[in-house]
Model the fold of this input.
Amino acid sequence: MGKIYERLDDHLLAFIKRQHVFFVGTAPDSPDGHLNVSPKGLDTFRVLGPNTVAYLDLTGSGIETVAHLRQNGRITIMFCAFDGRPLILRLYGRGRVVEVGEPGWDDLIAPFTEHPGARSLIIVDVDRIADSCGYAVPRYEYKGERTQLVDWVEHKGPEAVAAYRAQKNRTSIDGVIGLRSVDTDLS
Done:
C-alpha cells in the first residue's frame, strides 16, 4: 500500500521518466473559487533536485495554475501508471511561476526542450512525496504526442499568440491575476 518518501530516489525518477502525462492540481484561496486539475504532456516535466521539480507551462486557454500559485503557492502533481505495474505518485508542495524573460528564466529553462508557445516555468519545492496502489487505474496504450498545440502556435505567430494570451491568460476564471506580462510578446 501507500508509502511516503523523503526525496525523489532513483526508483521514483525512473517511474516519472516513463510517464507521458502528468496532472497538476491547484486551488484559489476563496472557498467559492474553482479547483483546477490540468493534464500535461509533451515532455515538459523535469526533476531539478531530490525535492525540486519543474514543468514548462505552454500557452493554453486558461491560466488557473499560474493564478493559484501566485495567490497561495499550493500545488500537487500526480503521475499514474497506465501500463506496467500499477502506481500513483503524488508530489505535494509549494510552487512559483517564472514567466518568459523574468530574472532566472535563462538558467531555469536550460534543461527543457524548446517549445513554441512557452509562457512560464512552474517550479515546485516538494514537501511531501507519496505513492498509492493505482489498482483501479485502467491500462492505456501510448500512441504518441499530439501536435495540435505546437502547430497552432506556429501557425498563429508571435503577435497573435501574445494577443491570445492577453485575452485568455490575464486572469483565472475566478478573477485571480494570471500572467503579468500578457501585454508583451512572450514567444
